[in-house]
Each structure stands twice: as C-alpha cells, then as structure tokens.
Specification:
Helix content is 31%, strand content 27%. It contains 7 helices and 14 strands.
Length: 225
C-alpha cells in the first residue's frame, strides 16, 4: 500500500491507500451482483442484511476505503471524503451506534463531486427523499433524523480493517452492493471469485432452461429420491 500524509487543522494523518482494482474487474463484479459473488466465494463476505440501498436503483462496485468512526460523530467521514480516491467505496463502522444520521444530502453531494464509488455504512443516514436524486450510491441500516457531533478529540481512523457484523473488511477489498445487499470479497480472491461466479451463472442458465422445459426443481437438483 502507498502512504500519504494528509493535514487536518492542527495535526496530520497518515493514510495508506490500497492499489486500485482494474476497471474490467469492477465491471464484471457490478454485472454479477452481490448474491452471486457471495455464493461463488463460498458464502463469505455478506454484510449484515439490514444494510440495504437507500434507493432500489443504487448499485456499487469498488475498492473499500474503510472508516472507523466514533459513535454519534461523523467527523471521520468528512475526513474520508477529503482523502479517498475516485472510485473508492467508503465502508464505515460506527462503533455499534446506529441511532444517528451520519450522512445526508450534503455529504452525498460531496461524494459525487469527488467521484467516489459510494457509501456502505453500518449505521443510519438522513435525507432519504433526496439521496436517489443526487445519484451517489448509499447503503445503510436505514434512516435516522438524529444529528451527529464532530468531536476533534475523539479517536477514529482511516483505511485500517473494520469489522462490519461478522465480516472483517480490509482496505482494498472488493465491495459490491445492489438491492439484495452488500458483499465484501478479500482482494486476493477477487479474480478467482469472479471466474467462479461466471461459472455459476452459466450453470443457472442451464437450470432455468430445464425448468422452462417443464422439469421440477426436485428433478433438476436431484432431490426426488
């Protein structure tokens, strides 16, 4: 990973940036979708089912830029907006505090202008009626009108591994989200998982053809014994 020093007010933060993933791989991942990738990876990487897109049209695929945020505070999200690279997906752990709106119209607009890939947050957001119109993909646990603080003395960090549910997300992992949910695929497995997912799609097309020809699921899956 490459390191960059970023100044913030009266101190500086060293952020390690993971290598980017080729756009071809991201395109394949976007087309395949979260559920197929989760299954093809051996059923790993599924983030909590409560994390869903704020609008059904939202989809994302990109490299994880992780954020460890103090509870009820979004200062570290603002810092992430300033230093993440175009295409990065912000993956945010909120220290188990869900009852706040950490993100909204203003931050979505900033994320879009920075050409980031989207937001996945283990917490809530606000301005739900406006987010789809902005067009920046937001995945969260839901909506909350409760505001957050900005404590300059609170501890947080950027682009270090975070635990979302039971999934450890590392900087540089592939993150894919759609209407079904979000999956994080470890970076070293990405190409093999994409290949396996495409094999799975071919198998499923054959299954669908047999079902359309009148076979039962019991017969297709050899369950009629």
């Amino acid at each position: 990973m490459s390191e960059m020093l970023h100044p913030f007010r009266d101190h500086s933060i060293v952020v390690k940036h993971a290598p980017e993933l080729p756009s071809q791989l991201l395109g394949r991942a976007m087309r395949l979708g979260a559920a197929t990738l989760h299954e093809a990876a051996g059923r790993i990487g599924s983030l909590p089912h409560a994390i869903k897109p704020s609008a059904s049209s939202f989809r994302l695929a990109g490299v994880a830029f992780t954020v460890h945020s103090p509870p009820n505070d979004n200062l570290w999200l603002h810092r992430a907006l300033a230093v993440a690279r175009p295409g990065d997906v912000l993956v945010v752990y909120t220290s188990g505090h869900y009852e706040s709106g950490y993100w909204g119209e203003i931050m979505s607009t900033a994320g879009k202008e920075a050409r980031l890939g989207g937001l996945v947050i283990d917490g809530c957001v606000r301005d739900g009626a406006l987010l789809e119109g902005i067009g920046f993909p937001v995945f969260s646990r839901g909506l909350s009108i409760r505001g957050t603080g900005k404590d300059f003395g609170a501890t947080g960090w950027l682009n270090q591994p975070v635990l979302i549910g039971d999934v450890l997300v590392a900087p540089g992992d592939l993150v894919v989200g759609d209407v079904d949910g979000v999956v994080a695929i470890p970076r070293g497995l990405v190409e093999n998982v994409l290949d396996a997912a495409e094999d799975r799609e071919r198998t499923e097309r054959n299954v669908l053809a047999r079902l359309n020809a009148g076979e039962t699921t019991l017969r297709v899956f050899d369950l009629d014994r």
